[in-house]
Amino acid sequence: MNYEEFQKDAIGQYASLPSETNELYKKYYTEIPLPSGEELESGRKNDSRKEVEQLAASIEEKTGLKFDLIFSNSFVRNQSKILSIRKMSEISERLNQKIYRNSDNKLVAFLNANSRDAIIVDIEKGKKEKLNILFINDSHLFFECLFSLAENSTLDVFEIFASTSAGSISAPLQEFSVGKGAQLDLAVLNDGNDKSTMLHLSKGTVEESGKVNANFVYNGSKLTKAINLFDAKGISGSVDVTEIIYGTREQKFDINTYLLNSKEKSHTKLSTGAILDGSSQCQLKGYAKIEKYTKGAFSNINQRGIIISEKAHIDALPDMSIDYSDQVSATHSAATSPIDKEVLFYISSRGIEDAEARKMFVASFISKYLSNIENPHAKEIASSIMLSRIGGSDFGSIKDITPKGVWLTANTSG
Amino acid sequence: MKLEIKDLHVSVDDKEIVKGVSLTVNEGELHVIMGPNGSGKTTLAKAIMGHPQLKITSGDIFADGKSIKNMKVNERAKLGLFLQFQNPIEIEGLGLLNFLNSARGALTNEALQYKDFMNEIKSTSKELALKDELIGRSLNHGFSGGEKKKVEILQMHILKPKIAILDEPDSGLDIDAVKVVASSVDKMQKERNMGLLVITHYSRILEYMEPKFIHIMKDGKIVKEGGKELINEIEKKGYADA
Prior knowledge:
The complex is a heterodimer. Chain A is an alpha/beta fold. Chain A has helices spanning about 5-15, 20, 35-40, 50-65, 90-100, 105-115, 340-350, 355-370, 375-390, and strands at about 70, 75-80, 85, 115-125, 130-135, 140-150, 155-165, 170-180, 185-190, 195-205, 210-220, 225-230, 240-245, 250-260, 265-275, 280-290, 300-305, 315-320, 330-340. Chain A contains nine helices and 19 strands.
């Protein structure tokens, strides 16, 4: 993989996203209060090894998972043979400086310039691999992940982002390169704390008959900004993205997802489900583009928001651009509503208290989206955490899942 | 349980739908309410169960002599009231089994062995000719109209109410299914001495049951009452002369 090319390409693409350039969306743009490079560097701790090790051990015990990689500023444990970690400075210090100064997209440039490590995963042709990764934000955690799947290979990645630190920023910049006939199953679970910020940027390309099933679960952080960009660039390439958001208190979410159908018979789909409680706010921006000469292409954006409290707010903005109208299918839908009173009446009529009925409905809504996660452990852990977050207990409304009450990160509110 | 409805007036968005209905259902009794579309039957059923968007402007509802007018929906269920919905709600992601188990736990506070619970569900499903696969799916999600009605009756069996209100249990069912559902309800009513209030447009389901009290509802009021002979009268003359 040519890293310099990737960086240039990534910056070019992010900078041209409608979320960055379209005047219409400026009112739906969440500014990130980025620290200066110096502030960022001085805010990085390297002395929290014990704390990180304790949290990692606790998460491994609760989830029953043995992580292939545990990654933080102060502690790294890599037990995978398919994964290597390199210092960004060793890759291209000169390029980082250049990008920081010249990029049109300050956010991406900032992430690039300040990423300290690169996690590199190469899956060989025809191989089938699995990775469980735990990222622990012990202070500002900036890094890049480069996943490369060769022809007909398969990779199942489960990433958890937890935090021991308040007021810090997690900023992964991930790239997935999915080769011909290869398959990526990705589950990313952010369980930050109420004073942390999550900047999540990912970019994926899918070659002929390749498949991506990407699932992003965002909750817990004070501010979450995500830019996910996937390009079905090969014939019959397929991208399915599912996003699940749970917001409470004064949390803010700015979720941007960009899907591109570049070739014939390509398939892209975005399903977003957001539940907003307290005074939380969420901007859901789903963009799809069907390029020219893409006969048989399919694209669908579906955004669904549930508002639990009167002060919560969702802006859902599906956006499609179709440059080729001959035998392509492009559909979108967006709906936001409070919990349906008829649903609550129905559940309550069976003897279940109103508050519990609400929890059941929320849990069922979330489980609908979690069902897209292929990895059963990831599905179970994500559901457990979400149930914990919504204050639910073992009321068991999620089909085929036994919640264990996993709680990765303590709430820091109040 | 004795359910008494006394001169009940119910409004939706300031429009009066139920205009002074009085009715008493005792344990073991089977009452039938028939009437044309829009006569207020479903509104009456939902008002008894405590639908939050319905406003009782006057009159009252009593369970064993105690007013339940201001009681929460779930509390009415705990007293032993059950409403079979005309249009059951679909909730994708909420497993039918888990929902039933939660509801049963909320109503009884009794620990029932999972095995016993499953056995009861399986035997009742068999009685209702419900496909096994439906039991493992989300509540009513993707079910046909008939399957939804059967699942409502399954819930009634599991939750064991003292008085059940069945709102059009026959709509959406084919001829064979009407017989299956009616026979199952009839059997449960007799075994548990359950009070029943059945709302229907059609007499077919009543062929398999033994109603003694027929009430004809029109324009928010009960305009005629009688025994089973009223069914034949309605079949012949319709509701126009009722």
